[in-house]
Amino acid sequence: MINGIKESLENSKRRGKKQAWLTAYDYPSARLLDESGIDLILVGDSLGMVVLGQKDTVDVTLDEMIHHLKAVRRGVLRAPVAVDLPSHTYDTPEQALESARSLVAAGADAVKLEGPLPEVIKALTDIKIEVIGHLGMLPQHVREEGGYHRKGKTVPEAMSLREAALSLQKAGCCALVLELVDAAVSEQISRELAIPTIGIGSGPGCDGQILVTTDLLGLQPWFRPSFVKPKADLATPFQRAVKEFIAETYALEPPSLP
Ligand code: KIV
User: Which of 84, 212, 243, 245 could form a disulfide with 45 if both were Cys (CB 3.0 to 4.6 A apart)?
Assistant: First the structure.
């Protein structure tokens, strides 16, 4: 387990160093990310959508997160590994403690949880579990919200985001993910916090950026969030290689019998 993530992140922010974070769910991608120099690897509960083929993240279980976290952990030597607490595994401080302890035991350096829940977060940081907060669009609440909607567009919404961000910092978070937050609001929050803000679809004014690696690499052409600019189109060489293999296999001549 890496110690002092919070101090190190705050130092980086003071020095103006940006954070580049990506997700991983298995050994090879975790190892490739780590060897590429990524600042932090998140075993996101986006697992549900990009690995398990579910329609959202809501039904991901703690056991599934542990299973994938262990695979990621085996591939990472350098970067901190954070993991999402899945939906309904932190409904009370007691439940959060039990869930987070099992993730730390499986190799997590930090846990991430969604929403303005300073009491739950404090219960974890009090026993030295590193916690990353997550505000703005909260994917675990997508069903109640009826979709992925941008946050902070009105003054009351911007004010409540700011209040929540300050309360999560006070509760001891080491960083704060801002998802689909109005760019001016994320920039303002980033200026006010000592801990880094990590944006996803929240504009350039955050202290770092995170993406789902599958989106970055263009591995799921059937679904691309509007704010993602893929850096590759890996679905194409993937399918080309598979088609070549199929064609070569079909063309194989059986050895002639003596
Ligand atoms: O589950 C996830 O992948 C996330 C994002 C912030 C990338 O929470």
Answer: 84
